[in-house]
Design brief:
The protein is about 50% helix and about 10% strand. A four-stranded mixed beta sheet has the order 2-1-3-4. β3 and β4 form a beta hairpin. The longest helix is centred in the C-terminal third of the chain and has 17 residues. The chain is globular and about 45 Å long.
């Protein structure tokens, strides 16, 4: 598994996280220890994260069956937050219904096939090609370039720091009272199965 050392060193200095960090639906009700959401942390460049995507639909189904919300939280591994254009684009895309998952898949595929997407223009061109239902050049100025897209990464980073994230991919269960990093071992398929069993046993 891939260690996000370069990112986690600075974010361990950031303390505190609330359920609001996840953007959970207002009015969600649960006991203090009942998970409200499952958050998957990943890097678009991580081969194990790319492999985990093959299990995404099964995990999604298990999350829905457990009555939780599923949040993907990609974090940059090779650049500062200001230039993390793929991640900024992903978080910004969540404001468009039904688009964020396509964006996530487009960036994972780019990482898997070695397509370099380091620059702002390259990211927009890739999105225009693979997620053409959005006018990305128009959307980017008001959303991707906006500081709020950096703030979204920072909120995810706070949650990762609170959970004690050590490697990608990682899964964190969030309740009103705690942030719990799931203890997983084995290869990607075994880890995915362990996540599903955890959800089934809630």
């Amino acid at each position: 598994m891939i260690s996000p050392t370069r990112l986690l060193h600075p974010i361990r200095r950031i303390l505190g996280v609330t359920v609001a960090t996840l953007g959970l639906a207002a009015g969600a009700h649960a006991g203090n220890d009942q998970p409200l959401a499952l958050v998957e942390f990943a890097s678009f460049d991580c081969p194990h994260c790319q492999a985990m995507d093959k299990h995404h639909s099964s995990i999604q189904a298990a999350v829905e069956a457990a009555g939780l919300e599923y949040r993907n939280a990609p974090l940059p591994s090779h650049t500062g937050l200001e230039r993390a254009w793929r991640e900024r684009a992903f978080y910004a895309s969540r404001s468009i219904p039904g688009v964020a998952n396509d964006v996530r898949k487009a960036f994972l595929t780019a990482g898997e096939t070695g397509v370099p997407l380091k620059d702002y223009d390259d990211v927009l061109a890739h999105l225009q090609l693979h997620v053409p239902q959005v006018r990305w050049n128009e959307f980017a100025d008001d959303h991707i370039s906006d500081p709020s897209s950096v703030e979204a990464i920072e909120r995810a980073a706070r949650l990762a720091g609170r959970a004690g994230l050590r490697e990608y991919p990682a899964f964190v269960a969030v309740s009103r009272s705690e942030v719990k990093l799931l203890s997983l071992s084995g290869d990607v398929a075994e880890r995915a199965e362990a996540v599903i069993k955890y959800l089934e046993n809630l």
